[in-house]
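#random but structural
TW: two for the price of one
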Amino acid sequence: MLGGAKKTGESIKETAANIGASAKSGMEKTKATLQEKTEKMTAHDPLQKEMATQKKEERVNQAELDKEAAREHNAAATTGHQLGQGGHHTSGTGGAAQTRRQFGL
């Protein structure tokens, strides 16, 4: 009986972590869209506008990759924890996108 409760609890933790990863991804996508709009409004050269769009698309793609990596990690952590190996849940805290932002890339 207690084993089923543990599995349910781990499932809830994984779901919560996945929701967090999705929320973070959505926020990153929104930031990318707003930055693109700002850059397009201030740019006068069509090439600069196109570069802003490409930059946004890269950020959106990276946010999606980070979200998927967090989901995979959460699933692996839950599976490992259920096997008695412990585990760590994350909602997608950083990764390559955060590193690029820190260095202004």
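TW: number two ↓
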Amino acid sequence: MDKLLDKGVALGISLAGGFIATRVFDFVWKKTTGDEAPRVANDEMTLKRALAFSIGSAAVSATVQVLSQRGADSTVKKLRGRLGDRTEV
């Protein structure tokens, strides 16, 4: 993806997906644990809870990255199909 359109679409989808995924993960974390999602290092947090949060957030982040890249590729192909060569930068 070396075109300006490709990068812009990928950035937009990634930002939107990351925002939504963060909100969903925070909601699930609060419903599951009863506590707010941690934002900074906390000495009172157990190692087990810190590891669970780290692994969960890393899994969500990796999923968003893969899905946003695939979504961007698909969206750009559709846009190029509709617009033709006018999208060249």
